[in-house]
Amino acid sequence: MATRTKFSTLSRQVLASPRRFSVPQILSPRRSLANRAPPSYPPLQAGHSQRCPTNPRGRRQFGASSISKGATALAFAEEEPVDEVDFDQGTLPAGKLRNIAIIAHVDHGKTTLVDQLLRQSGTLKPSTDQNPAASTDGDSEFGQRVMDSNDLERERGITILSKCTSIDYKGTNINIVDTPGHADFGGEVERVLNMVDGVALVVDATDGPMTQTRFVLGKALARGLRPLVVLNKADRSTARPAQVESDLFDLFATLGASDEQADYPLLYASAKQGWATDQGPNASGQAIVPGADMTPLFDLILSHVPPPSHLDRSKPFSMLTVQIESDPYVGVLYLGRVQSGVLRVNDVLWALDAQGNKVGEGKVKKIFGRRGLDRTEKDAAGAGEIVSIAGIKMGSGGVNVTLVHPEGWGEGGPTALPTTPIDPPTISVVVYPNDSPLAGQEGSRLTSQLIRDRIYKEAETNVALTVLPGPTSESLELRGRGVLHLGVLFETLRREGFELGIGPPKAVLIPNPDVPGQMLEPVEECTVMVKEEYAGGVVQKLTMRKGEMVSYEADEAQEGWVRIVMDVPARGLIGYMAGEFKNDVHGQGTINHIFKGYEPYRGAMDTGRNGALISMANGDSSGYAMMPLQARGTMFIHPQIQVYPGMVIGESSKSQDLYINPCVKKQLTNIRAAGADEKIVLASPKVMSLEESLAYMADDEIVEVTPKNVRLRKLILDVNKRMRMKK
Question: How far apart are CA 591 and CA 337, in angstroms?
Fold first, then answer.
């Protein structure tokens, strides 16, 4: 305790004569409060911000930038317990750390829950001067879904990438990882589970456990993590917590949870309203009484999630990277959790791939931790802390790469850390450079080499993406988790100025090791929630696509609704989920799927798609020509759209392809007509998005993607050559 005595003596001297000492002298020996753990404050009240005792006009702030000169700085320094920071290492003690991931099915409230934790911890500052307590959910002051920072995430209202944030509660640093809920982005969940020591499973109190709930919970249990459960949206009148609890316990048992894992704590919460409570409905079935704030969840995280004390800080430094970030000032950052040892600025590190080969090295320039949505610079980081490191140069890769200190490992030298196995991809597409007559008019990146380099760079960070050589020298085969997974990648490329052609999605088939000559195909477990009057049509369509019924039962939460579970080949869902399902259920139904496994190939299937309306002319489409053509089928384009021969501009009402000319213009003469012109009336065309086009296209078609347009066309544009190929 000599350090405490010396520190207190300096404090008394400075308080007596503040001008004799400067702030850096006072903060010796580390010379900064930037790495010091925050002091302990009382629990927060719902909707109120936390005030710093020595800075009553501002919010809680830490680090050297928040320290004022003179006696105020000393008062703040003396209020903090000295043992909050390990001065010998410059790192947070392992007991003051908690690492937790938020996992759930899509739309069950993960990101909204993280928003509330950031707000009520005082980490997230309001965007206006209004009182945060003026709104029940705080969206007007703080913004909605602040963790969804990607443009595509905000447009679609979903989480695509896993993101890490950090809050401070009662002197403990809690690192929180927000994960996606869609099955197509399951690779993001799998790769971040090795960074955390616990998970919070969020379950909708009305819907109960869904397909992605089973997937993410199974991955967490397999890693030995002990979940805590949050029944979200418990404020709704349709909530059925008793039945959901029963279904959830059955799911734990089905997934083979241990006795310790099955003995999970349970909270009832409303992330939108900002409260959580451990008091469920009573025996009479009365509604859950709302809590005051999120304090029960904060306390449960501290008590249930173990600190990373099992990681040894006496060993040499090692860390497995799980994400690549970028900064305009320091360049590439590698995010991960320190697995062993202590890292300091200016340390020299090696980068090892999964096989232990050296793929890079460098000197650590910067170490960044997290404080809410911002990065905070650190001088050192110990085992258990989640940090981003700048200064490492790698030739290729970056995710699932081990960063190690080259010395102190003994005769064997440094070795790579084990990586988390990723489920195999199920869908593949072929990507070509754009060779249509309109190529190069909208994009700036056109060549196959630019496309190849960008896709291989994406594969370094997107662990669920596999890149293989294509059927031609200029093409590539991409394999991913689903149409949505690949569609998000292609949407990102088009916004970057790329032009490319995308082939039809196909299921990834593998040979059966037990039966020579037999192929196995991926099968998805498909869960459909639909009104009973539309259930028959859905079952018929999925049966046509080689689906097999697993269960059919009435939904207890909503009268007149049914829950259907079917095993459907992945290729059968490609064309059905994009738009046909919405028409079958009249917008009153949901469909979710999760990869089940590989099963023997079930044979060819008839999706029932009609032929295409194919343009046979080059020019701009006209309403005069399109009006009589509406009787031939459904149009995909508006008038005054540039078309070319071989471009698919509609769906025929018959099973055969039909060649039409949408560019005919009315012939103008100098002869006055006796009658008035016929009024042109056009129905609204069916304009498809990128994902809908990918799911709709036939085997002989490709999707032309440019920064401004998505067009459907035949792979072979020349009609005569196409006819010869069919013979």
Answer: 36
Q: What contacts 149, CB < 8 A, 6 or more positions away?
A: 163, 373
* Integer Cα distance of 141 and 126 in angstroms: 5
> End-to-end alpha-carbon separation of the chain, Å?
90
DSSP assignments along 54-83, one per residue:
TEEEEE---SGGGPPSTHHHHHHHHHS-GG
Query: With contact defined as beta carbons under 8 Å apart, do 102 and 163 qualify?
Result: no
Coil, strand, or helix at residue 96? helix
Is there a contact between 546 and 570 (Cβ–Cβ < 8 Å)? no
Alpha-helical (H) ranges within 501-652 are 532-544, 570-575, 581-585, 623-629
Torsion of CA 235, 236, 238, 244, to 10 degrees: -50
Render pLDDT for 370-414 as a digit per residue (tens, 0 to 9).
888 788 888 999 999 999 999 998 876 678 889 999 888 888 888
Distance, in Å, from the CA atom of 615 to the CA atom of 713, rounded to the nearest integer, reads: 9
Tokens 């400067």 locate to 22
Q: For residue 125, what pLDDT is reported?
A: 67
By CB atoms closer than 10 A (0-12, 13-18, 19+), residue 630 is middle
Q: What is the dihedral of CA 584, 586, 588, 589, to 10 degrees?
A: 20
Per the listing, tokens 């340390």 go with: 347
β-partners of residue 443 are none
CA 514 – CA 56 distance, rounded (Å)? 71
What span, in angstroms and rounded, lies between the C-alpha atoms of 579 and 243? 32
Please report which residue ranges of 95-225 form alpha helices under DSSP H.
110-120, 139-142, 151-156, 186-192, 211-222
The DSSP 8-state label assigned to residue 132 in this structure reads G
Instruction: Give the span between the Cα atoms of 339 and 315, in whole angstroms.
Output: 10
Which amino acid, one-letter code, is at 581? F
DSSP 8-state symbol, 580: I
Element (H or E) spanning 7, and its range? helix 2-16
Radius of gyration of the chain (CA): 30
Please say whether the beta carbons of 181 and 92 come within 8 A.
no
Residue 91 contacts residue 383 (beta carbons within 8 Å): no
Buried b (16+ CB within 10 A) or exposed e, 150-177: beebeeeebbbbbbbbbbbbebbbbbbb
Model confidence, pTM: 0.75
Where does residue 634 rank: exposed (0-12), middle (13-18), buried (19+ CB within 10 A)? middle
Residues in Cβ contact with 674 at an 8 Å cutoff, skipping those fewer than 6 apart = none
299: three-class secondary structure by DSSP:
helix
Ramachandran region of residue 402, left (φ > 0), alpha (ψ -120 to 50) or beta? beta
Distance CA 262, CA 258 (A): 6
**Helix ranges restricted to H, 520-655:** 532-544, 570-575, 581-585, 623-629
SS3 710: strand
Residue 13 pLDDT level (bands cut at 50, 70, 90): very low
Letter for the amino acid at 653? S
Beta bridge partners of 334: 324, 389
Residue 502 is inside which H or E element, if any? strand 500-502
Bridge partner list, 382 = 342
Q: How many CB atoms lie within 10 A of CB 620?
A: 13
Does residue 272 have a pLDDT over 70? yes
- Tokens 């009006």 sit on residue: 627
Contact 711, 637 (CB under 8 A): no
Average model confidence (pLDDT) for the chain?
Answer: 79
Q: H helices within 259-332, ranges in order?
A: 259-262, 295-304
Token readout for 259 is 């006795």
